[in-house]
UniProtKB/TrEMBL annotation:
Organism annotation: Dyadobacter chenhuakuii
UniProt-recorded name of the protein: DUF1343 domain-containing protein
InterPro entries named among the record's database cross-references: NamZ, NamZ_C, NamZ_N
Pfam families given in the database record: NamZ_C, NamZ_N
Keyword Lipid metabolism in annotation: no
Residues in Peptidoglycan beta-N-acetylmuramidase NamZ N-terminal domain copies: 56-253
Keywords: Signal
Domain Peptidoglycan beta-N-acetylmuramidase NamZ C-terminal: start-end pairs: 257-408
Signal peptide: 1-22
Amino acid sequence: MIRSVFISFLLLLAMRGIECNAQTASSKQNKPDKRGIITGADQTDKYLQYLKGKRIALVANQSSLIGNKSSVDSLLSLGVNIVKVFGPEHGFRGNASNGAVVNNEVDAKTGIPIISLYGKNEKPKKEQLADVDLMVFDIQDVGCRYYTNINTLEYVMEACAENNKELLILDRPNPNAYVVDGPVMTDDRFKSAIGIHYIPMTHGMTIGEFAQYLNGEGYLNEKCRLKIIKVANYDHDKPYTLPINPSPNLNTQQAVMLFPSLCMFEGTAINEGRGTLMPFTILGAPALKGQYAFSYKPVSIPGMSERPNHKDSVCYGLDLRTYDINKLRASRQINLAWLIELYNAYPDKARFFSPGRANQDISAFDLRIGTDTLRKQIIAGMSEADIRKSWEPGLQKFKAIRAKYLLYP
C-alpha cells in the first residue's frame, strides 16, 4: 500500500513538472524577443552547409568576424574551402592608411592569396574568379556615401553578374542607419573614388539592403544573383556598437557616430583629427588660434595618417570626444552647424575650402559632398534651416526609392 501511494505521488509530481514546463515554454514563446543583435556572419547554421563543397572567395577585412575571430580563420576551421580573399581599402587585416596603395599578397597567417580591390584593381577580374564557385561579402559599413565599402560592393556585384557567380552577403548592422541626410548627388561631374552613387551623404541602409538597391536601380548592366543572410533582432533605429574598428581612423564608437558629420571637413582647411589618436572626434586648424582654447598637434602616424592636414602644427578648435551622440540620434540629422561655425570663424575664408587636384576644376570638398551647392550656400551665408530645406526634395525622392529595398523596419 505504502509503495503504491509513493509511486502515485511520483507520477503526480512528474505530471505537474511536465505541465509546468509546457506553461514555461508557452510563456517564453509569447514574450518579445529580447536577445541582442546577431550579425549574418554569426548565424553559421544558416549558411555553412551552403558553403561546403564550393570554392569560396571572401570579400573581407578586419571587421569580418564570427564571434571574436576572423571570418576567414573561422570558416577555414569549419572546413570551408576558401581559395582567395579580396580586400578593400585599408587591406584585409585593416592596417593600411586611408588612400594608401594596397598590394596583392599572401596572408602570412593562412597562406591564402589576398587580392586588393583598392586602387587600380577596383573590380575582380575574370581570371581572378575562374576558380571560384561562390563569392561571400562580409564587411562592416558605416552608412556614408564617402565610405568606400559600398563602391567595392558595386564592383564585386558587377563582376559576379558578368561572370555568372552568385554573391552571398553576410549582413551587418549600419551604426548610422537612423539617419538619411545631406544633399543627394545628381551630377556625374562629382563622381569619384569617394562617391559613385546618386544618394545622400548618409543612406540609412545595411550592406544587404544597399546590394538590393544597386540591383533594383540599374547600377549594374545585369543583375547580380544575391543570397543575403539577414541580421537577427535588428531594426534601423536600434543602436549598435561595433565590436572592432572598421578602419584605422574610426578607432572609437564616438568616431564612427561622428564620421558622417566630421568627414565633410576633409575637403576644407580644418584638420578632423587625422594625425592623432583621436580621429573624427576633434576639429581644428592653426589659423583658429585665439578663438578656441582646445588645441592639439597632428603628426605622421604610420598605418593611420602619414600626411595629415597641418602636420606638426598646433591646431585650435572643437573637442567632440564627449559630445552626446544621443543628440545626433534625436535629430536624425548630420550636424551641419559645426561646418558653418568653423567657416565663419576662419580668418581667411578664401582658403577654407580646399581646391581640387591639378587639372581638376572641382574642389575636394565638392567631391566629398557630391555637389558644389553646399559650398556656395555656406559662402553666401545661407542659414542652416534654409540649406536643409533645399535638401528636402532630393531626400524625399530618395527615401521613397530606398523603401523598396529595406530588409528591416
